Amino acid sequence: MHGLIMTRLLLISLFGALVLGSVANSAHADDDWRSFIETQPVSEVTITRSQSFAAEVISPNESQLASELNARILRIHTRPGAVVLQNQLLIELDCQDQQLHAESLIAQQRQNQALLDLAKLSLSRLKTLQNRDLATLSQLDELNTQIDQLEAQQGILSVEQAINARQIDRCRIKAPFDGAIVNHQVGEGQWVSVGTPLLNLVQTQDAEIRSQLPVSWLRSVSDIAEPSHLKAVFQALGIADQPVNLLRQAPNLEPNSRSVAVWFKADTNLPIGLSGQLTLTHPKRFLPTQVIVQRDGEMGVFAVQQDQLRFLVLAHVQEGRPHPLPDDWADDLLIVTQGQQRLSRAHAQ
Question: For the Multidrug resistance protein MdtA-like barrel-sandwich hybrid domain, which residue ranges apply (predicted)?
Answer without folding.
Answer: 65-202
